[in-house]
Design a protein that fits this description.
Structural class: mainly alpha
Number of strands: 0
Largest sheet: none
Order of helices and strands: HH
Helix content: over 70%
Shape: elongated
Radius of gyration: 30 Å
Length: 87
């Protein structure tokens, strides 16, 4: 087991060093390009468009949980059952 570990130690250290140098070379370049900024902007837009309905649903869940009358809840199956229609 010791011989296997010692044989694998050199390639592991060499692999770690080479990837560190590759990362440093890419960081020095710094040319991201316009497409990267469009991708980041698209991701932000997706998050924002998902956050708006989530906040509305969260507010209506809180309203339903803390309302005293079950018919006052936004998505209640009892909504409108307490009123008499003039038919």
């Amino acid at each position: 087991m010791k011989t296997t570990a010692s044989k694998l130690m050199v390639p592991m250290l060499a692999g770690a060093a080479s990837s560190a140098y590759a990362a440093a070379g890419a960081a020095e370049q710094g040319n991201g390009g316009v497409l990267i900024w469009f991708f980041i902007g698209f991701g932000v837009m997706v998050l924002l468009f998902q956050a708006a309905p989530a906040l509305v649903m969260f507010a209506s869940m809180l309203k339903g949980l803390f309302s005293s009358n079950p018919a006052e809840a936004s998505f209640s199956p009892l909504k409108g059952k307490g009123k008499r229609s003039g038919l």
